[in-house]
Design brief:
about 350 residues; Aspartate Aminotransferase, domain 1; seven-stranded mixed beta sheet; binds pyridoxal-5'-phosphate; PyrdxlP-dep_Trfase_major; transferase
């Protein structure tokens, strides 16, 4: 299968090879060393401020979204949630479940966040802000530096979900004054799902150290303490952490995060150029590099997804909910090439020839 989804994506060969080996025992100095290396490279690639830390959670990234909300906020907070799609809505739902005080800044699907919209809110009314840098359900990239300037005015605790944007779009945690960034193994990191990562600024670390979180597994201070010796409180997804290590080192060797981001950007630009020949339109005002949401002018988006899967052995990403029949998404992360884009365009051209679009 040729995989144009947004995760799990196609892993490079070296990552797959590690996946075929036995999983080693992990309470060893050797594994601790690998974890230390993982932490250093993540901090470097995220441009995290000095004395930041990264912890590796064995859960999907939603687990880390929830852990962040649980560890960094209390009932005394008022949180602004940027909600432009299913991932923004997920943050709102987490706040709801944990009975936190929050307000949603709602955006239409595909709509970008502007300074004017943000300016209708008073930063003095908020103590926290949650945003998904790339709202992957609609492919909209938010200006996280603009939001960071808003947060700075009232020392708003600023959490950015970079799950699909890390290593796909330029990100500098220092420049956007973020306190927390979250990412996961199965997006641009191109490893299997199962591990997510929380990067904490010194301010976030202080808060985690002083919170009494009502959770055993999602106690970030426990994760920080264990991480000091390159370990985790409980058995982590050891195999995936080894794969992440190989992948991070390969990115470093090839020139670092910026080189990888440029590669993904090129893959996206190549697809967006090639698809112009077909009757589709783009539906994002501020397109992220990781994914292109596409609206077929004729034909049904979900039928196209099914035909590509069954007849051409190509996966694209269908949308859920009320977008199911109008929009599908084409991912540009993972081990894909310009030739792969051509294969997809040829398949779509063939579907058009058959009269389905
Ligand atoms: C994929 C993704 C997540 C996490 O999804 P999981 O299925 O929990 O790994 C969170 N936020 C964004 C923006 C994503 O793209």
């Amino acid at each position: 299968m040729l995989n144009f989804t947004v995760g799990p994506v196609t892993s490079p060969q070296e990552v797959c090879e590690i996946g075929s080996q036995q999983v080693p025992y992990f309470r060893t100095p050797e594994f601790s060393q690998i974890m230390k290396e993982n932490e250093q490279l993540i901090l470097e690639f995220a441009h995290a401020p000095k004395y930041s830390r990264a912890v590796f959670m064995t859960c999907s990234s939603t687990g880390s979204m929830e852990a962040s909300v649980m560890n960094f906020f209390t009932k005394d907070d008022h949180i602004l949630v940027i909600n432009g799609g299913s991932f923004g809505a997920r943050f709102a739902k987490i706040c709801e479940i944990h009975e936190l005080n929050y307000t949603c800044l709602n955006l239409k699907h595909g709509q970008k966040l502007t300074q004017e919209m943000l300016d209708t809110y008073n930063p003095a009314d908020f103590t926290g802000l949650l945003v998904n840098m790339d709202e992957t359900s609609t492919g909209v990239l938010y200006d996280v530096e603009m939001i960071g300037n808003f947060c700075k005015k009232n020392h708003i605790f600023y959490v950015i979900d970079c799950v699909s944007s890390f290593l796909a779009d330029p990100f500098d945690m220092r420049r956007c004054h973020a306190d927390v960034m979250i990412t996961g193994s199965q997006k641009a990191l191109a490893c299997p799902p199962g591990v997510s990562i929380i990067v904490m600024s010194p301010r976030a670390i202080r808060i985690a150290q002083n919170t009494h979180v009502r959770s055993l597994y999602f106690d970030l201070n426990d994760c920080l303490l264990n991480g000091e010796r390159g370990q985790t409180p409980f058995t982590p997804a050891v195999g995936i952490l080894l794969q992440i290590n190989a992948r991070l080192k390969a990115i470093k060797k090839a020139g670092g995060a910026e080189t990888e981001i440029a590669r993904v950007a090129e893959q996206a630009a190549d697809f967006r150029e090639k698809i112009k020949a077909l009757p589709f339109e783009f539906v994002s005002e501020s397109p992220a590099n990781a994914v292109t949401p596409v609206h077929p002018l004729y034909g049904d988006a979900y039928t196209i997804f099914t035909m590509l899967k069954n007849d051409y052995h190509i996966w694209i990403c269908p949308n859920g909910g009320d977008m199911k029949h109008d929009i599908f998404r084409v991912g540009h992360i993972g081990d894909l090439t310009s030739e792969d884009n051509t294969t997809l365009i040829n398949a779509l051209t063939d579907i058009r020839r058959k009269g389905y679009l």
